[in-house]
Amino acid sequence: MTDAAILSKGMDCLIQNLGDVDAERFIMQIIREPFDYTKWQKGLFEGMSLDDIGNKAVEYCEENPR
């Protein structure tokens, strides 16, 4: 997939889930604030067991069916 295609899909996803205005606000937050995705991801599941993570995944899927 090209970089342009990834950007397009990402923007479509943001707009679909946040709406036009909040998608733009999200982008502005990312631009303004230094954001290290790798550090954020490392702390995302800190203190959670595999069962906790699995339960959260199941809960999310039940609340957001495709």
Task: Kindly describe this structure.
This protein has three helices and no strands. The mean pLDDT is 89. The chain is mainly α and 66 residues long.
Sheet having the most strands: none
Low-pLDDT residue intervals, each spanning 5 or more residues: none
* Percentage of residues in strands: under 5%
From the structure provided, what is the oligomeric state, counting identical versus distinct chains?
A: single chain
What is the H/E string? Answer: HHH
Number of strands: 0
Structural class: mainly alpha
Given the C-alpha coordinates, what overall shape results? extended
**Mean of the pLDDT scores?**
89
Helical fraction equals: over 70%
Q: Termini distance?
A: 23 Å
How many DSSP H or I helices?
3
- Using only C-alpha atoms, the radius of gyration works out to 15 Å
